[in-house]
Specification:
The structure is a homodimer of 430-residue chains. Chain A has 430 residues and is mainly beta. Chain A contains 8 helices and 25 strands. Among the domains of chain A are: 178 residues, Oxidoreductase, molybdopterin-binding domain (Sulfite Oxidase, Chain A, domain 2, Alpha-Beta Complex), CATH 3.90.420; 122 residues, Immunoglobulin-like (Sandwich). In chain A, 11% of the residues lie in helices and 31% in strands. In chain A, the strands form 6 sheets. A 5-stranded mixed beta sheet of chain A has the order 6-5-14-9-10. In chain A, strands 7, 8, 11, 12 and 13 form a 5-stranded antiparallel beta sheet that branches. In chain A, strands 20-19-23-24-25 form a 5-stranded antiparallel beta sheet, with no helix packed on it. Chain A is globular, with a radius of gyration of 24 Å. The termini of chain A are far apart. At the A-B interface, helix 1, strand 1, strand 2, strand 3 and strand 5 of A face helix 1, strand 1, strand 2, strand 3 and strand 5 of B. Strand 1 of chain A pairs antiparallel with strand 6 of chain B.
Chain lengths: 430, 430
């Protein structure tokens, strides 16, 4: 009964571990909790003698019946997307994933963030076509039904708006939740057809270098994509977490460019025009450029940088006195896998490696976790991610110093939460 | 431009490959399509010259606005669970995941299969407690809020009802969809607290060998679980694909026993009583036993066997003439990872290895895929899975021969679809 003995040992040896309040053994053995909560007075009751005598109402009468499509519990009604639409233009703006109310790495389809430029079109799939034309030998048009006959693949990938976390370039830290700051970020299992397959059928001309993707929304959202990416891991996605893509994610199909900024993953995808040059579409000149200190803007910056954010604890949560807490958050990189996440509880003086939840997938959200004994004194929590290419998340000030004051795309700096002695959590710049 | 050249080469060399109609290169390079569809007259149009001139309605007016919690497209309204409730007992029975209408490996939360014994309780999480008692030094009661303070872990695992595919023991093959046959099966990313952690805090007595799990539904569904499993990978799951577990999956918490039959993963988990013996609860004597040829029933058979099913094509789909088709399906094992899936198109005479979609995870659904050139003659498709322990999916007749005629739990035999010359698909026993 080795496991039983281990369980006992783990529970009875609830000491505080390494410096910084991190538990040493939790650092070594990811996912195994060792510093008991029960002993430190955190609300666990000794079970009463008369267990079962006071059965709750819901054990006394039959529950409700089956449903053909389920919804979350009514007790979870506050777990919803937060909408920020442009005044007078209800289909233009964003809605954010409430990251601070979720767990794991997959985003439920109903809570995937939205960014629309002219609302969500209601497309009849039997009338929708994907056209591939331009510098190809055979311009082709694919119905949804035809695409469904192609070999498919599934990949778990994040999609992040390039404007996500953009408020970090404001002079003062915005006091809002982790989802409010970073919720233009979601992660799904996407299934569809590799774009290289379709381009192969159309047969590219020698001079082909770019592909312009256009959506079938009323904004005809358009972006230029390097051909190299289209022949790499780009996908025409038809399914999201098992079911057909949701309307707000591009039903019946979207372009998926793993690791590239969200808006390039054109939703309601309608046309792919193969070209020699990028098209300088409205959506890549009026938006989605990086404003530099000299007032000029850099165009065609696609890759989302290596990044992480602590989700628990974060603004809006309250610590309940000194004792055990798990610090957890999300890390991701447009360039591949996360190789390391370090956590600091003293504003960046000391760092400890967090455990990464397996499987750690390329261009997907990775959950990191670290056990922490809070001594009740003010502390500043930060996380710093490194990806497999060796890129390290920069400090906020290093990020800010590169850009004009009003640049807000592609923020990937280190974030900070200050835990006050009274247990409240504040957003701080460090 | 190496990739560009490869795309051209792939497309222009659309020959039929290895024997059995499988494409040789697809066998070698998973996920890369090589035998062009466009050339073989399957409904892909040459794109018109006047692309864009006939814009659809939805490009002419703004779409609808943002939503706080999204739903699938109205065009997908037929993608729903199929309910089979006991007459006069609306909360007792099952609803099935429509596997044949889904893709990838994750099941969307709204379509996770259901099996209830007395309906879905509507539990107020602030009034729910998990009690651990019996052969422990410290009986403990955990509120939802307290459990949320514990270290969590995330695991992608399938849950399968032990009655799934039970109709395969009927004398004649049931003519229904792949979901109708196998849809008591779903797969999610579950997040929660390792049960070993909580048992460690309660401190097990030496004589502890079993744990009886009880649900807070009106059936008080109860099952005995070997302690060994509780100290291994068992979890108190609080989240499912990112959000709080759905009511029909056990909100606010369920027991998750990866690889064990569905009903042991007790929903609305309320009590864990540590015992020396199993309890012989109603739900493990009246149900969930294996009926043997001698009329006796075997109890406490927990592990779901290695299994696979072809989902595409399957009953209800029609082949559109000879040409390219992708055969795809799902494989899984209660004992660990899938190591191999073989596919036959000639009723089991020849077999070819399918490509497995990465990451191949332990006790999770694995999608397999294989390119096939159908020559238009009647064919019988079958799939055979092998797991990392070396267990191989048995033939249907080998499975049937072990049991009494009315036994229907734990069916994991090989399944067959007959493709007729007219393209219809029939369920057959081989």
């Amino acid at each position: 009964m080795e496991k039983r003995d281990r369980a006992k040992t783990d529970a009875s040896s609830g000491g505080v571990g390494a410096g910084n309040g991190f538990d040493r053994r939790t650092l070594l053995r990811a996912g195994v909790f060792v510093a008991g909560i029960a002993g430190i007075g955190s609300g666990i009751a000794q079970a009463a003698e008369s267990i079962g005598a006071d059965a709750p109402d819901w054990m006394k009468t039959p529950g409700r019946s089956f449903s053909t499509y389920g919804m979350p519990s009514k007790w979870q009604e506050k777990v919803q997307r937060t909408i920020a639409a442009l005044p007078g233009r209800p289909g233009t703006g964003t809605s954010r994933t409430p990251l601070h109310l979720l767990e794991g790495t997959i985003t439920p389809n109903g809570l995937h963030f939205e960014r629309h430029h002219n609302g969500v079109p209601d497309i009849d799939p039997s009338r929708h076509e994907l056209v591939i034309h331009g510098l190809v030998k055979r311009p082709l048009a694919f119905s949804v039904e035809t695409l469904m006959r192609y070999p498919m693949e599934s990949q778990i990938h994040f999609v992040e708006c390039s404007g996500n976390s953009g408020s970090f370039n404001q002079p003062q830290p915005q006091q809002t939740t982790a989802g409010g700051l970073n919720g233009l970020l979601s992660c799904s299992e996407w299934t569809g057809v590799r774009l290289a397959t379709l381009l192969g059928e159309a047969e590219l001309n020698r001079e082909a270098k770019w592909v312009v993707a256009e959506g079938a929304d009323a904004a005809a959202m358009s972006r230029s994509v390097p051909l190299e990416k289209c022949l790499d891991d780009a996908m025409i996605a038809l399914f999201q977490n098992g079911e057909a893509i949701r309307p707000e994610q591009g039903y019946p199909m979207r372009l998926l460019l793993p690791g590239f900024e969200g808006n390039m993953n054109v939703k309601w995808l309608r046309r792919l025009k193969v070209m020699e040059q990028p098209v300088n579409a409205r959506d890549e000149t009026s938006h989605y450029t990086e404003l530099m200190p000299n007032g000029k803007a850099r165009q065609y910056m696609f890759l989302q940088g290596v990044k992480s954010a602590i989700i628990k604890p974060s603004f809006g949560m309250n610590m309940k006195g000194p004792g055990f807490y798990e610090i957890s958050g999300l890390a991701w990189s447009g360039s591949g896998r996360i190789s390391k996440v370090e956590v600091s509880t003293d504003g960046g003086k000391g760092w400890a490696p967090a455990a990464l939840t397996a499987p750690v997938l390329s261009k997907a959200l990775t959950r990191f976790r670290l056990a922490w004994q809070w001594d009740g004194r003010p502390s500043i929590l930060m996380s710093r991610a490194t990806d497999e290419k060796g890129a390290v998340q920069p400090t906020r000030s290093a990020w800010v110093s590169q850009y004009a004051p009003i640049q807000f795309y592609h923020f990937n700096g280190i974030q900070g939460w200050r835990i006050e002695a009274d247990g409240t959590v504040k957003h701080v710049y460090v």
